[in-house]
Amino acid sequence: MSQTKAINPLRLLPLLASIVAISPLAIDMYLPAMPTIAEELNTTPTAVQNSLSIYMAGYALGMLVFGPIADRIGRRRVVIIGLLGFAFFSVALAFAQSIESFLTLRFFQAAISSGATVVVPGVIRDMYGRHTAKGLSYVSMIMMIAPMIAPSIGSFILHFTGWRNIFLVLAAYAILILGFVMWKLPSSMPKKKNRKWLREFANNYKAVFANKSVRLDLFTSMFATFAFFCYLTSISYLYISHFGADEQTFSILFAVNVIGLFISNIINSRIVERFGSRKLLRFGSIYALFTGTAFFTVLQLDLGLYATAASIFLLLGSLAFITTNSDALVLNTFAEKSGTATAVIGTLRFGSGALAGPLLALLFDGTPSNFAWLVLGSVVLVLAMQVLNNVQNIPTIRAS
């Protein structure tokens, strides 16, 4: 579908990572400004916090639309639309005068930005083929810089100017990346141009969901990502409110957790060609059950801040093995429908992320038990999906 095979992957990966980084930057950069935003817009902190769930919901719905569009009109065009739209709504957010307009603009900012990021896995799949998990690991490693530095950037901007400039900086970042996209990202057009757009749109989704093995891998990725969003939603409460850590200690432990993800992606990129994504996905599922159980036990026994941080470090590393390899397996199954496949992955992923906050709030009893139970339940479901996948494929293996 594309011309990316003729390009040195290592030259294009930093640009692809920069495109994917838009989402964590948009999520994390304004976190330090939430109390200020609530005060200036004359609303409650909870209302501003809801913008995170609204952003994830908009992102999930946007991917449903832009994935098939990318398969239809080409990836480069969709990236350009996504970056321009993200820049426009970021500027609009900088001038929001009410919480209603702020939440509405955040939804549309997320929805259109998904057009830029939905194409990236497909480009990586074109470059790496059956070793797609290796390329995804590389991009994840580069992209992880964003969540590490985003809150600090937001705090810096907030200290010297105001929260509105955070969104202007996001707009400037999108325009900068757009320039590199116009320069470096190759065009990619579909091989066939069927005029029946709506039928093709529906058939692509039907093909993805009809594949039983892919369906189980999709749910595997979704449950693992749900556990990760539970972590993102709960970590500040766990470290600061429950254990009494100061802001500096929180920043250090948060960075260490990101390093755990980074290490797992390095390991995955080095061994995936030897073992394959399926074996590493099964390993990650078993490993996640172990780390999730350890995390649950540490919290239930209240073993303290650093024991909890160590268990989270291991837990996040296991989740990285799961999401990277499950995504690669799905993309390799639908090479010509990679936009649609990525849209399904992203919709399930961010849709589950949007549910994390409400479920945590519903189960909250004044302790981190809600976090512990949801994480344990997620990793159990991850392993269950892979056990079902293995059982489902036994007749096929014997027949062959």
From TrEMBL:
Subcellular localization: Cell inner membrane; Cell membrane
Keyword Transmembrane helix: yes
Pfam families the UniProt entry points to: MFS_1 (PF07690)
Main subcellular localisation: membrane
Single GO MF descriptor: xenobiotic transmembrane transporter activity
Transmembrane residue ranges: 12-32, 52-71, 78-99, 105-124, 136-160, 166-185, 218-240, 252-268, 280-299, 305-322, 343-364, 370-388
Residue ranges occupied by any Major facilitator superfamily (MFS) profile domain in the UniProt entry: 12-395
Keyword terms of this UniProt record: Cell inner membrane, Cell membrane, Membrane, Transmembrane, Transmembrane helix, Transport
Protein topology in the membrane: Multi-pass membrane protein
Gene Ontology biological process terms in this record: xenobiotic detoxification by transmembrane export across the plasma membrane
One cellular-component annotation, GO: plasma membrane
Cytoplasm recorded as keyword: no
Family, similarity comment: Belongs to the major facilitator superfamily. Bcr/CmlA family.
Protein name per UniProt: Bcr/CflA family efflux transporter
